[in-house]
Specification:
The structure is a homodimer. Chain A is mainly α. Chain A contains 14 helices and no strands. The first copy, chain A, has 2 domains: 130 residues, Helix Hairpins (Orthogonal Bundle); 119 residues, Orthogonal Bundle (Serum Albumin, Chain A, Domain 1). Chain A is 75% helix and 0% strand. In chain A, helix 3 packs antiparallel against helix 4. The longest helix of chain A is centred in the middle third of the chain and has 35 residues. The first copy, chain A, is extended.
């Protein structure tokens, strides 16, 4: 028997509601933030490379360790009117070196028209950076609210990335510790499964200071310990909503210290 | 005998001058412009995709054929306060459809905080677009000045791309017509040379209206004719600096018409 008009409409209503619930979860916003930050970084890197190449026509000797300073330099340096005071505001003690290089530069004298376009590029890069910072700040706030336990142990930035990589908090709460340990290292994991190369010791959680800064030999064990605590934390965030992270973090720190001490003894 | 201090300095001076000349040529600016436009396009596409995905949480039924309109929509649409007059300013006769979709949307109600970040993304995209337009305009002006013959026949945008692809105007002037015909189709050309697939009929010059809009069977011949004229034009721009493009363009148009007429007869 075909559905009558009334039931048909009821079914539509219920389906609509389900779709709304599926896309309304807060972790979806976290996933969007992580993706947006990633894409803003890619874009600004791409345009920054172009800036260095283009500006290199004008002042190829200009180099800075810090990209933000380079962009500022592009905006203020005028080879026709060298201004030490202006340079010192941005570059401090490096300013005289830059002045010296300016005077012997082999760069070509670009017209004001040309320079104006290069500076527009530089301003665009600054704008991309500040938007990235803004979204990162927002991402941290959402992470702290959505997964306080994960954020407390891993830091809000890493917590956001883990949730995004897992495809949502509810999904992450179903993962075993071994999966969370290598989350983000899927490529190395599948290489291991296919060709028998060494399995990855850590994925995204490598970004945690306790892992990245530890000696190589201890990293695998510390990663396992951290992943175990994050697994419990993700279940607390997704299901029980209790805040148990202080205890978990303390336990992890004790374990990590012991692993590092054992490691030193063996050497 | 080692050089004395004086000759050493003289040599340095001469070397410096040569470097300056090498990077000062105007076609280098053209190359930078073409690259920058390309990268601004890539970046804005990347961020636009993120925008549609993120905004899709809020109003998944919102679709426009035109990306610029989509971005404008993101900036003005407020599902809590539907405003037909505001919508009509941007979308004209489409506005009522959008209003209708807004009312039955399955999208989730994002907070103002969330929407503010999405709108920042939208504004960034607009800013990338307007910078791209600005650099494209500048690129056209430089091309018209640097290679008036090429620009007259191919249009300044295509001329700029050809010069950039060739690695400079002087280099382009040494190319035979067959190279200019497939400039930008290097991948297809080398595939042809390696595996004997069909050779490419056209590279960048496909963008010329006379080729892209002609029937497929005539394109190869028209491309050959256009490439021949562009080859002469590039030599005039790089070496003799005479303006001979009017004659060349007229000749090309006669040839193209004949090729099209022949093609029609054969069918």
């Amino acid at each position: 028997m075909p559905f009558d008009q009334k039931s048909r409409e009821d079914f539509f209503k219920r389906a609509r509601k389900k779709v709304t619930i599926a896309i309304s979860s807060r972790d979806n916003i976290l996933i969007q933030c992580v993706g947006a930050v990633d894409e803003l970084n890619k874009s600004s890197n791409l345009i920054f490379e172009r800036l260095t190449e283009w500006y290199g026509m004008y002042f190829p000797e200009f180099k800075t360790a810090d990209n933000a300073k380079y962009v500022q330099g592009v905006l203020i340096i005028d080879r026709k009117k060298p201004d030490l005071a202006e340079l010192e505001k941005v570059f401090g003690p490096q300013a005289p070196t830059i002045m010296g290089r300016m005077k012997v530069s082999v760069g070509t004298g670009l017209s004001d028209e040309d320079l104006a376009r290069i500076r527009l590029l530089a301003k665009e890069i600054q704008s991309l950076w500040s938007l990235r910072d803004e979204i990162e700040k927002y991402e941290a706030a959402v992470a702290t609210e959505l997964c306080p336990n994960l954020s407390y142990i891993a830091g809000s930035e890493l917590a956001a990335k883990l949730v995004a990589q897992a495809g949502g908090l509810q999904r992450m709460a179903t993962f075993p510790s071994s999966t969370i340990q290598v989350l983000g290292a899927e490529k190395a994991l599948f290489k291991h499964l296919k060709s028998g190369s060494k399995p990855p010791k850590h994925g995204l959680i490598f970004q945690h200071a306790m892992i990245g800064k530890s000696p190589k030999k201890a990293r695998g064990k510390i990663a396992r310990s951290l992943a175990a605590k994050l697994t419990i934390a993700s279940k607390a965030d997704a299901l029980s909503h209790n805040f148990i992270a202080e205890k978990l973090k303390a336990q992890f720190e004790v374990q990590a210290k012991r692993i590092l001490a054992d490691q030193e003894k063996r050497q």
